[in-house]
Amino acid sequence: MSELTFSSTSAGETQALGERLGTLLEPGDVLVLTGDLGAGKTQLTKGIARSMGVADEVTSPTFALEAVHEGAEMPLYHFDLYRLQSADELGDAGLWDALGGDGPCVIEWGEQFVDEIGDERLDVYVTRLETQAVAGEEPPREVRLVAHDARGEQILAGLAS
């Protein structure tokens, strides 16, 4: 298991990292995004979507649970599992239909279900660095990516180059 860490000082930088990440994604890739409210998970997803040619607005699908964004070559499956209480609800959220499908899955708040999601994933931890905040500005973020399988390792290698 290997990992990479990036710093971001703005929403634009977080989106730019997402764009780099999005160019490396293939059908069936799974990213589990973890971070507090407002940490930047959706900003990262916006960048991923932009790099995939998604034209529609990307917001966190908190109440719908899933949003399917049509990209230029493949769809992006975007989940927000914040409101789910148990793994029994994952099927109703549409997760089982999207995993291993024709596009990558970006799963916000999926950390509570990693046993069910499995090891074929890349974990992305987005953390607000409150202690490094400058008065009147948004605090910087740390984005740490942790690979759990060979495909995740390939993605990290692509980001590192």
From TrEMBL:
GO biological process: tRNA threonylcarbamoyladenosine modification
Pfam family, one: TsaE
Superkingdom, taxonomy of origin: Bacteria
Localization, UniProt: Cytoplasm
Gene Ontology CC: one annotated term: cytoplasm
InterPro entries referenced in this protein's UniProt entry, alphabetically: P-loop_NTPase (IPR027417), T6A_TsaE (IPR003442)
GO molecular function, one term: metal ion binding
Classification via SUPFAM superfamilies: P-loop containing nucleoside triphosphate hydrolases
Annotated signal sequence range: none
Location (main, coarse): cytoplasm
UniProt keywords, alphabetically: ATP-binding, Cytoplasm, Magnesium, Metal-binding, Nucleotide-binding, tRNA processing
UniProt function note: Required for the formation of a threonylcarbamoyl group on adenosine at position 37 (t(6)A37) in tRNAs that read codons beginning with adenine. Is involved in the transfer of the threonylcarbamoyl moiety of threonylcarbamoyl-AMP (TC-AMP) to the N6 group of A37, together with TsaD and TsaB. TsaE seems to play an indirect role in the t(6)A biosynthesis pathway, possibly in regulating the core enzymatic function of TsaD.
Similarity remark: Belongs to the TsaE family.
NCBIfam families: T6A_YjeE
Name under which the protein is recorded: tRNA threonylcarbamoyladenosine biosynthesis protein TsaE
Organism: Parolsenella catena
